[in-house]
Amino acid sequence: MTDATGTDRSVRTGHGAGGSGPGAGPRREPGAGIGMAERQAMRARRDRMRRWAWGIPLWILALLFLLPFAWMISTSLKPDVEAFRIPMQWIPDEPRWENYTEVLFGENSILIPFGNSVFVAVLRVLGELTTATLAGYAFAKLRFPGRGPVFIAYLATSLIPAQLLLVPRFVYFEKLSLYDTLWALILPGMFTVLGTFLMRQYFISQPDEFAEAARLDGASEFQIFSRIYLPNATSMLSALAILTFVWSWNDYETPLVFLSSPEKYTLPMGLTSFTDENGAMAPGLSMAASVISIVPILLVFLIFQRRFVRAMTESALK
Fold this sequence. Notes:
It is found in: Cell membrane. By secondary structure, this protein is mainly α. It has 14 helices and no strands.
């Protein structure tokens, strides 16, 4: 449509033949695309600066946490006289690899304590996963009289400090002829309140409709547990396995009380056997043994880290 001057009105008002049809958007001002691109670029720069502002302190904190490990590795490659020299030399001129051969195959070899620790940790993890899973499922999904009070009473036992139970446990295990055996370390670690609590909280978050549908199909309670709920609990089981393994691997107090024979010592007890001629700690040998002792924990964490992080994230969200 034209006016008296011959100018097309639709072009002047921005609603011409090409812009009035279905799907046509509003007319953009010149330079509108450039402004949007600049805003996106500024937003990207702000996000990048925000990540750096959070990332740099976290990197510094992580390096501070790694410093003791770096000192441990450095000291494990030095003779004892250079362990505490100031200023410290982080990289020794001539690494002393003999510290590792002495620790592994010398007079006070850690191979036997290492094997004892592996034996105790594996059985404790298997026992803990079995008992915590069954007990957690029972407290979460099974209906029986007194379920709530029994669970509260079980939780209340965690309020008793573990040190108060050392003497009763010592007397009890001595009467059962378990004193100075590895079973004195394994059996108490198979039943923990925290493991049962974690598994109960996981199972209670799972929908009951799964069990109801399975019961209608004729499944037994154990089949419901083993075929429906247990396969979905691998993340929480991995997290519990890592925690139990670390607790067992680093446990020093229990072996100190319940073991007296050097051939039964676990790794934390074996680390105390590296002394010099004056009876003081031999830093080079002790640090070499410590480096070897953390290898299994690193391997376990690297294998299960994704499931561990997933379980912790799911627990935090719930």
